[in-house]
Structures are given as C-alpha cells and as structure tokens.
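User: Run a structure prediction on this.
Assistant: Running it now.
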Amino acid sequence: MTHMKLPLYFCLFLATILSAQKKDITLEDIWKNGTFRTERMDVLHSMANGQQYSFLNFNRQNGSTSIDIYNYKTFNKVNTLLSSAALEAIPYFTDYTFSENEKKIILATNEEAIYRRSAKGHYYIYNVADESLDLISEEKIQEPTFSPDGKKVSFVRDNNLYVKDLISNDIIKITSDGKKNEIINGITDWVYEEEFAFVRAFDWNLDSNKIAFIRFDETNVPEFSMDVYGSELYQTQQVFKYPKAGEANSIVSLHIYNLETQKTKEVKVNKAYNDFYIPRIEWTNNPDVLSAQYINRRQNELDLWMINAKTNTSNLVVAEKDEAFVNVTDNLTFLKDDSFLLTSERDGYNHIYHYDKNGNLINQVTKGNWEVTNYYGYDKSTKRIFYQSVENGAINRDVYSIKLNGRDKKRLTKTEGTNNASFSADFSYFINTYSSATTPPEYTLNSAVSGNIIKRIKDNAVLSQNLSDYKMSKKEFSTIRINNNDLNMWMIKPADFDQTKQYPLLMYQYSGPGSQEVVNQWNTANDYWHQYLAQQGYLVVCVDGRGTPFMGAKFKKVIYKELGKYEVEDQIAIAKQLGDLPYIDKERIGIWGWSYGGFTSSNCLFKANDVFKMAIAVAPVTNWRFYDSIYTERFLGLPQENASGYDENSPINHVDKLKGDFLLVHGSADDNVHLQNTMRLVEALIQANKQFDWAIYPDKNHGIYGGNTRLHLYQKMTNFLHETLGDKI
C-alpha cells in the first residue's frame, strides 16, 4: 500500500474542520445534565477475614437496599447478607455498621442532617444469626455505637448519653443534665464539629465495661440565630450556640462511666488548664488506660495524656509545642506493646513518629523535605506502616509502605497523579483510586506487598470518550517565582490560543491554611466552568500561595497572626507578573473565590485596585471578628491580643478603596460563614458610596446548592464576567 503525503495547508484545513466539530461545554452540562459525572466506588467495608468486603447496593426497581458481600480477588458477589426487601419495618436503609464480630449490624434510616457532619435518625439492630430486627429508640438518636463485645450499643438522645443492653433490652441513662443550647453529653458542639471534624465524643474501652465521654457546657456561649424563610406565611428561626473569636467557648470536661458500678467519674489531669479544648479521646489496648489530647486555647500546645481509669491517675506522655499552631489529627495508633504512632511537624515537615508507652521517642519513621498526607494504618504481621505522601512533588500523591524501624520503604503506586488507598482489614490488598488532570478516576485492586495491580475494577473510559467530543483545553502545570518562593500553578488557555492576541485573565484561588487547589487530579465542577470560560475566550489561572499546605511548616505557618496579608500579597504579585505576559491584557484581570477564597478575592480587589478590574466573592468572611473561635484564633490569636491582625486584613475595613467591579454572593442559611459577613460589608460599601452587585440565595447554606441553585449562581457569575472582563471577546 502506498501513502500519499498531504499538503500542509490541507492538514491545517482538516484540523480546523475537526476543531469546529467539537461541542461547546454548557452550564447545563455542568450543573444540570450531569454530562461530566464520573463513575465512582462508594466506600467499602473490609470484612474481618481480609478476603472479602461488603457494599451497600441500591435496587432502583423496588427502592430497596442490600448489604452484599464480594470477594476481593474476583470482585464477584459471594452472597447478599441482608436486603431491606425482606424487612417489614424498614423499606430501605442509608448506612450500616458492623459489630466487631460481624454478628450484628446497625442500620440507619430516616436520617436528617443537623450540621456539616452530624445527623440524627432511626437506627435498628439486625442480628445476622436469627435475622431479627430491633429498633434502638422510638425517638431519633445520634451516633449509635456497638461495644467491642457486640452486646451493647451506646447512643445520644436529646443531648444525653445512653447504653442499651442488646440481650435484656434494658436502657441505662448515663447522663440526665442534657439540654438544648446548654449541656451536651457525648456529642460535640457546633464549633468542635466544624473545626475539629468529629461528632461522636464518647468511646468504649476494649473490655466493654467503660465509656469515656466529653461533656460540653455551652450555657455561656453566645447564641446565633438565622431566619429560615421556607414556604410558610411566617419564617422560623434556627438558634444555636456559636462562639465567635474572643468570645466564651463551651466549658469541656472529660468523664468515664463504669458500667459495672454504674458510676461516673470526672477525669482530672495533672496540669492546670485555664481555657482549653479536648479534640480527641481514644482508649488504648489496655482497657483501663484512656488517651486524651488536650490543647490550649491558643492552640500552640498539644498534650497527649494517658489516663488510668482504675487508679484515676494521669501521665503526660507527649507535649507538642509550636510558635504558631499545632495540628490535631486522627493518626494516633496504639500497637500491641502499648507503644504508639503519631504524626508531627516537629522537624518542619509532617512525618510519622514511633513512641514507647511512656512517650519516649523510639524513632522517626519517615524523613525528608516532603510531607505525609494520609496515614492508612499499621500491619502488625509484617510490621509495616502504610501512608500517602507528596514525595513525588507537592501536586501529586503516592501510596507507600515502610518498616516500623524506618527502613525498606516501598512506593506502591506507579502512576503520576493522585493515588489514594483503601486497605483490606489484614493489609493484604488495597483498592487504589487514581486520577490525574488528564485521566478520570480509575479503581484497581493492588497487592499491598508489591503494589502491583491484581485486577482493574472500574474506570471512566465512557466519560473520556464523551469528553473527546468537547472543546477541552489542557491544564498546564508549572511553578511561578513570587516573593522569593516557587509557587505551584496551573493555567487553562483557550483551545485556539494565539500568543499574538491578548486575553482577559481570571484568577481562581482558595488561599486558606490547609487547603490546596493546584493538584494533579481529575476535574471538579469548577474545572469544567473554567474550561467553559476558556472556550469563551478567557485565560484561567490558579496559584497556591504562602499559607497553603504540603510545602513545609514554615511555608504554611508564615500567615500566623496575619491572615490575609501574605496570601493577598502573593495573588497581587502573581497578577502583576502574569499581566506582563504579551498574551494577557493587564487591563482585564479578575479574581474569584469561595469562602476563604472570597475573603482573599475581596481583599485583592480592594487593596490592589490598580491591578484587578473585578472580583467575585462567594460566601466570604469579611471580618475575622465574625468567625468562629477555634479556626480564627488558631491563626490569629485572640482579638483582644492581636487587634491589628484582625482589622488590617479584613475586607470590611478597606471598602473605601473599591474602584473595580464587585459581585458579592451569600446563602441566607449559612451556619458556617454567617450572612452577617455580607450584610455588614454591604452596609459598609453603601456608606462608602460604592456601587457593587450582590445576590442572596434564600435558605441556602455555605455550599449554596439544591435544585437549580448552582446553575443560577454560575450563570450569574458568568454574566458578570462577560460584563466586566469580556468587552473585547
């Protein structure tokens, strides 16, 4: 067969024709039609044998749910353990939890959300052996939890802690002083749930005869109220305790209830704390020894206590201190000899450390100028630790294993991008979730020994094929030198980019401590919006500036006591430097962000009115005095001690500088960043006689979603962009 070489002009003509045939992304594709939705795997429960896992399946035909058992190696279904179709009491359930011996299951139904992580509902105990089903409580409850022996279940109802004996069905009321907006037993208050990221504040010991719990006295915490407009003639109000920076927190105390004596003792540690938090409690492998982490209100001293419930004594085993702040994690792991593993930034990067039971350091397990980003667990049979890190660059994630002594490290994932593992109970396998900026999520079964792929489970080949029909631009990763730091950056250019032309620039960022936006992973919904804007003729850029994570503690903690200073300086410098590029129109630079990103974009527009032409701020903090105590004080200290840190970098104090175009958006039912932030900023802008655009979404929380809400919001933001930056497109 002979091949004919085509003329160059014909090749260019053909490429133009093919490009013209590509479909445009629409806002409806992103926010309504689910065009770019990925196939995902829900979280699996690894069975105790390590060879099987359970999965919650939904039957679309009859609306029932089932717990099905699958084999890891084959991914074939072994059997259906339970189906709601066979249960008269509940037509479906939304979640399930096994007892430790897997002979009983807690089934959740009628759950209703309270805040970000909390919910209450009706919960049933299903007995696998006799297939019986028993309702735990007629009233809705929170956090039902099996005792380790599976013979009891503890739960919280109306702010009080209970234990139900599953043999006699007797219920013991451990506390009786619980009262809404005053006393909470065993469940966290709003600010703990939001900032320390947990709800269940009680824990069973190994012998199932003691329960440790935290009591919250929020009587003196100021109340916050939100109008809920709904559809009735009169609006209602949601009233809850919310400690703002510098205001009274809940008074917390730690207690241990003994089921044998039916008595509760308050724990007293051997240190006088003035104002403090208890962000974690966990029983050790010794049924008489409870671990508890105490942190001072300034959050720069974290103490790990070992409390002997039998002798009522306490031993301080680790005292972590930092000039800025100390992180609270879930990485504490107790080994068989009562030694333990813990992560720390003590050498400037987050790494794993091994301590003996008295807190003496045995060794630093991981080392290097990189960070451990996830701790998966410890395999006692091989004495190996499994973790995720950014050893292969801060924008990538890989899964590793390493010996307890810090030797024989193995990289278990091979492909550059974002890898995340879910291990079997015996650490023989892991299901790896992999994606990159060019590859949608892929799920594989891997060997925990070699990391080799045993079986490919699921991919998104159909989505990849569908996307090939659309005008998509490459997300280009690079670094940019700003303020003596190499910052990670991505850029999305129009598919027909012409470097001889000039394009308007939209900068996207979050910028807050602990949050990373420049990651080599698959698209979020915002990425598709940015692609949509690129096909409209915009150039979109995102840069993680100082204060963001995984570049070392010094890089992250530079923002201490100066929230909104260095992050804003970096974004302004980025805009100036990019504005000097020949293909960027420096007269048409905008910036947008959500939450902390909205705070930053507001500051950028106000403080650099000669650099930014416009900004969009969604659900922003506008004054740090309005935000919660734990988050704000961690980075700024108390407002009584650092007034300038609060005021000099809060957008509300810089409204007089506004020159460009400003769009301000908030949900009226935002329990996190209150609408108060926007309302007070609006009033300040009005009194400064500044024109701006704004929108309030009724009864929407911090996420501003539901029905057509997101579609409406992004259409509004798109229109605003076209009006302010798109005049030459």
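The chain has a mean pLDDT of 95.
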